[in-house]
Amino acid sequence: MDLTKGHPTESAPVWSAPENRYTEFLVDSGAFHVLAADLSGTGRKDLAFTSHSGDIVRVYRQTAPRQFVAVDPQDIVGFHPNDIIVLSNSPKRYLLNAEGAGELRVAEVNAEGRFKQLAKYPLGNVLSSTPFSWPGWGPISLAVAPYTGTAITLLRDFNPETAEVKDVLTLPVGRDPKRVQVVDIDKDGTPELILPSFWDNQIWAISYAGPDQPPKVQVLASFKRGWPRQVLPLDVNHDGAMDLLVPMSTRERIAVLLNDGQGHFHEGESIPYPGKTGIHTLASGKDGEGRYLLAGGSGALVLYRERQNTPGQFETLLAPIQNWPNWVELVDVDGDGSLDAVIASQDAQESRVIYGPLWKAFSQLAGQPNESKQQESKQQDATKAAKQASEEEKK
Ligand SMILES: [Ca+2]
Ligand SMILES: [Ca+2]
To answer: Three-state SS for 289?
Structure first.
């Protein structure tokens, strides 16, 4: 299997590898982000790729496991769009970070996979919005990261029907803050908002201080270099306290910040990245086979699997690709219980879903026979040798 050839075309925008091991999707001008969610209301996961340079969202509807129908590109997202997220579940509402239009757009999706705008909130320079809930702040508030800038915007009590808000807070957090994660780092039941700032290599926490108090902003950790685009919560050492993974975009490592259980962090042993410098995007996930990380870098997808006998340690497989992913997710797309790798690629022909079991799938893509195949071929070799021996005896 070879991931370095792009297969989907204008006339056939969905391309499936032999035995449906992975599916490729055409996204003109390359994909910036992908949302894997039941957009069309069938119970199956569909995909919505946004193209920042192509000014479109492209939906692929999953009509049967691993079978997708392409919906025509939609311009609902305006000029230079960024992430699309699920805003609320009943009724299902989506939030489009329409950077060029200077708006957050609330939308619904019909059974054909077409977005329809319902409301909008004017806000410039939006990259990504993360829903969170704090006591007295209403059911949904949003933490909005800028495409470039120096502040996170908190929209208190965001109404998912009308896009009205109760209050707006602008919090300075370093140089170029990126996407926000919601993590209860001190285990007091109220989550903190965690994010990296890119140019000054810092990890920040925004903490709830009371219904009408300004939130507390603090630096959790500083690095000398690395330019982190993301921070990802994972209890690396299995002690019940959420640790933080910080993939570095100019280093060959994922930094590990270990939590003392009260929200104080110290740097642990980092996780090496076996590809060419550095990491564009990282996802984590867990299924029946264990815990995984998926890193997307220049010319490589790297799958990490936690070693069963040494928790917190990972083994890796590297699948070569032509370009680089802007976003990856680990989600069970086909509904078979195994996580699948969802990739939004800078390359128009390299956005994909690679179906689990992931270790087996990546063994094939990395050109390494997986364990069971190895055993199988050893057995075949042994059988062949035995047969030859007995045939030679007959002669
Ligand atoms: Ca921990
Ligand atoms: Ca699956």
So the answer is: coil
